[in-house]
Design goal:
The chain is of the alpha+beta class. The chain is built from five helices and seven strands. Helix 3 runs parallel beside helix 5.
């Protein structure tokens, strides 16, 4: 199945100069976990709820900081003509749940998510497999290894 038949469009996006607070409000209003960041019609990044929490607030930024400070620049994208199976494979390898869909010129036309794939009956198995790959533990010690933290006696 081609991405164009199952992507969410139009995609709600944000400008790099919008604030963390603005993005959080949009995510809450639309019940989404990521926003493509667009400047003059071109995709320049993506920001997730985790980016807001970890790169933003946990790093000491205030709610008025601009998205450009926490977004992932040059995110992995796909084309409307790409096949879902190929996109799921990339999502699994890159450990991402949402992918902007862009034209060859870099114009944002939609977003495809792992949830979009799971809604396609013939791709539920592949979507579950991709989610399993995304959720596999990864530590600084190496992919797939679990770090064990031992409590130090006081």
């Amino acid at each position: 199945m081609k991405i164009q038949y199952m992507m969410s469009c139009p995609a709600r996006s944000a400008a790099p100069t919008e604030t963390l607070e603005d993005a959080a409000a949009v995510m809450a209003d639309y019940n989404v976990g990521a926003l493509p960041v667009v400047d003059e019609g071109r995709l320049v990044g993506i920001v997730t709820d985790r980016d807001l929490a970890v790169r933003g607030f946990a790093a000491g930024l205030d709610a008025g900081a601009h998205l450009v400070r926490v977004m992932t620049a040059q995110p992995v994208t796909c084309s409307p003509d790409d096949e879902l199976a190929e996109v799921l494979a990339v999502m699994g390898r890159r450990r991402i749940r949402r992918m902007p869909v862009c034209t060859a010129d870099g114009d944002l036309v939609g977003v495809v998510s792992l949830a979009d794939a799971a809604r396609q009956p013939e791709y539920r198995g592949e979507a579950a497999e991709t989610l399993s790959e995304i959720c596999r533990p990864e530590t600084r010690h190496g992919k797939g290894e679990r770090a064990v933290l031992l409590a130090q006696p006081s």
